[in-house]
Amino acid sequence: MNYFRDISTYGGCAGATTAALESTRIIEEENLVENSRVLGEYFLKSLGSFKDMPLVGDVRGKGLFCGVEFVKDKKSKEAISEAEMARLMGNVATEGVLVGRTNSSLPGNNTIMNFAPALVAKKEEIDRIVAAVKAAIEKF
Residue 6 and residue 46: Cα distance in Å, rounded? Predict the structure, then answer.
């Protein structure tokens, strides 16, 4: 063999180790953990403004990983249907923002919209996500 061969993704993968070291360097140099903490607090506070909307059962998160739970009834916490959730997700996409939702194998448990912006996200991008979700809820 006259060429370099690296086929394992589990053990002895030099490329993965190099990528991990470089990623760690960037995270430290650009203070991305602190960015996640600061923007995460801002994001959660911004999403928290939805709590008074009839459709929103809860808003929760840590760092930049946040979620909004959608319900038919705030008191009983009965979830909206998955078809309604799909429609809501479509409304957000129509606003130009793609977001995730819970993906449980139990029907009826997929009604939490999840957000996980990049660690390098800026305040303006968080504002765009929040505005898109707000518009989607108002259209619902």
Answer: 46
Q: How many domains does the chain have?
A: 1
Q: Distance between alpha carbon 42 and the CA centroid of its chain, in Å?
A: 14
CB atoms within 10 A of CB 121: 20
Q: pTM value?
A: 0.83
Yes or no: say if 47 and 61 are a contact pair by the CB < 8 Å rule. Answer: yes
Q: What CA–CA distances, in Å, run from 59 to 15, 36, 44, 131?
A: 39, 17, 7, 15
Query: Burial of 6 by CB count in 10 Å (0-12 exposed, 13-18 middle, 19+ buried)?
Result: exposed
7 has a pLDDT exceeding 70: no
Q: Are 136 and 88 in contact (CB under 8 A)?
A: yes
Secondary structure (3-state) at 75: coil
Is the pLDDT score of 107 beyond 80? no
Q: What is the CATH number of the domain that holds 66?
A: 3.90.1150.10
